[in-house]
Amino acid sequence: MKRRDLIYAVLALFTIWHIAAWMIDQPILPSPIEVIPAFFRELGGDLLPHFAVSLWRVFASTALAILLASPAGLILGQSPRMNALFSPLIYLLYPIPKVVLVPVLILLFGLGDMPKIAIIFIILFFQILVLVRDQAASLRPELIQSVRSLGAGRRALFRYVYLPASLPAILTGLRQSVGTAVAVLYVAELFATQRGLGYYIYLKGSTLFDYPAMYAGIMAMSLLGLGLYFSVDWLERKLCPWEFAK
Amino acid sequence: MIQLNALTFAYANQKPIFQDFSWEVQRGETWAVLGPSGCGKSTLLYLIAGLRFPTAGNVLINGERITRPRPHTGLIIQEYGLLHWATVRENAQLGLRIRGFYGPDGTHAPQDFQPSLNVDPWLDRLRLLPHAEKYPGQLSGGQRQRTAIARTLALEPDLLLMDEPFSSLDAPTREDLQNLTLELQGEQNLTLLIVTHTIEEAAILGKKILLLGEPPNTHPRVIENPQAGSDNFRGSDAYMNICRDLRAQMELP
Fold first, then answer.
1. How far is A169 from chain B, CA to nearest CA, in Å?
2. Is A113 domain-assigned?
């Protein structure tokens, strides 16, 4: 996407928002003219620490999901026997809306960062696992045989074939899940915490009735999701240049 | 150089493709393996490459029993052999990288292996240097196969196995690569085994032609074609005759 198009899209969004605020004319929907200064004001206040906490939770859970789901997906993808063993379990667990597990995880892990990290981890884990597994399984046997003929054993096949072949699947998994992950983070941060953007938005909106500050929190959460999305795009360009070769 | 001794091979729950099959290839020979689909041509190549194993009997190369891919055997397949996420140069370096990964252990890499990633002389020889930074998806079919050849030759093989390497290429490219293969075979003193389902290709490339038929193959049917590879062979009477002979032997109209 071109940067210019992105700027136009942001301007269009703010214009629609402004018109909607003007038409509704209620404190519950302030205009962006009011919210944008509030956003920068709140950044200097307590918004930034809450943002940092949410960012850390997303980052930690994402890193954990990549580190655990990628090798698991690679193992299942290149071993039909292991895949046959585990795929009924994955088939059952994959479609469960993971957000219902938030209360269970809070009970299990207590009040700290752990339940929030765990819930995002679970969402990303299954998405990456399934995509990496399918990608690894789809590698043609001719390719594997041809690389084996160059002397590659199992370790070299992982290093030179399965791992690079799975990179796009890992990034696709991230891209597909990042929106859900941020949405679930919001829900998770409504419970049993006083840190994070979810808590901040709820506090400003429902307790303090400071609607511009609440929208500043929503903007920060949107920027978090958008930033993650762009990071995945950037990583894809860096790590998978062949996907963009013409 | 290659000996197949009373070799029997069958895929699980299927009738044997080879049964008590013995065959021998001398160093520096150029063989084409010809036969209809399902006759076991590719299986034979994979058995020699150490990627499949006989149910009975054995495969010896230079007197050593083959139990895994051998560092000095190169295999080139029809397509899908290149890493689509690696550039031409990186693909050509793949075998050297794998050897470097394991070190000179005598199993994955020869014991005298000197780590090096310099494949430019091969890219140059195979007219690939201008395309060195391209990905396989950006190449023509001929360039892709030349990359596969560069990757294999960079490992300095003494035995080159080719499994229908040119079958998906257009006629001029195929002819160009057939000529290149013969040139390289001569230059590097390679023992060459090329599997093909095309009578004309077998006639052009194989100084000896192994004919396989409906399984099980129990004995080698060998046709001598000593003029293959000589100048102007493609237009010669000898070429026409060998094609006619092969057609007759394969019982084609």
1. 13
2. yes
Domain that holds residue B108: 84-156
Structural domain of residue A147, as residue ranges? Answer: 48-244
Residue B61 resides in a domain: no
Q: What is the pLDDT of residues B138-186, one digit of tens each?
A: 998 888 988 998 898 888 889 999 998 888 788 888 888 888 888 888 8
The answer to whether A142 contacts B155, with C-beta atoms less than 8 Å apart, is no
Is B96 part of a structural domain of the chain? yes
Q: Inspect the interface and report whether the beta carbons of A142 and B71 lie closer than 8 Å.
A: no
Residue A9 lies in a domain: no
Report the residue of B80, B131, B195 to disrupt the A interface, i.e. the one with the largest count of A CBs within 10 Å.
Answer: B80
Q: Residue A187: which CATH number?
A: 1.10.3720.10
Asked if residue A28 is part of any domain, the answer here is no
In a domain, B173, yes or no: no
How many angstroms away from the CA of A46 is the closest CA of chain B?
45
Residue B131 pLDDT level (bands cut at 50, 70, 90): very high
Q: Is residue A91 part of a domain?
A: yes
Q: Do B98 and A160 touch (CB under 8 A)?
A: yes
Residue B138 domain-assigned?
A: yes
Q: Do B75 and A147 touch (CB under 8 A)?
A: no
Mark yes or no for CB contact B86/A145 under 8 Å: no
Decide if A143 touches B, using CB distance below 8 A. yes
Residue of A152, A165, A246 lying closest to B85 (CB–CB): A165
| Assigned token pair, A109 | 């892990």
Place of tokens 């190369």: B61
Report the domain count for chain A. Answer: 1
A149: closest CA among B155, B37, B126, B20? Answer: B155
pTM over 0.90, yes/no: no
Interface test with A, best of B46, B79, B85 (most A CBs within 10 A): B85
In chain A, residues with a C-beta closer than 8 Å to the C-beta of B100 are none
* pLDDT averaged over 10-residue windows placed end to end, chain A, 246 residues: 85 94 92 92 90 93 92 90 91 86 87 88 90 90 88 90 90 86 87 87 89 93 91 91 86
- d(CA A51, CA A220) in angstroms, rounded, equals 7
Q: Are the C-beta atoms of residues B195 and B33 closer than 8 Å to each other?
A: yes
Cα B243 to Cα B142: distance, rounded to the nearest angstrom: 25
Asked if the C-beta of A47 comes within 8 angstroms of chain B's C-beta atoms, the answer is no
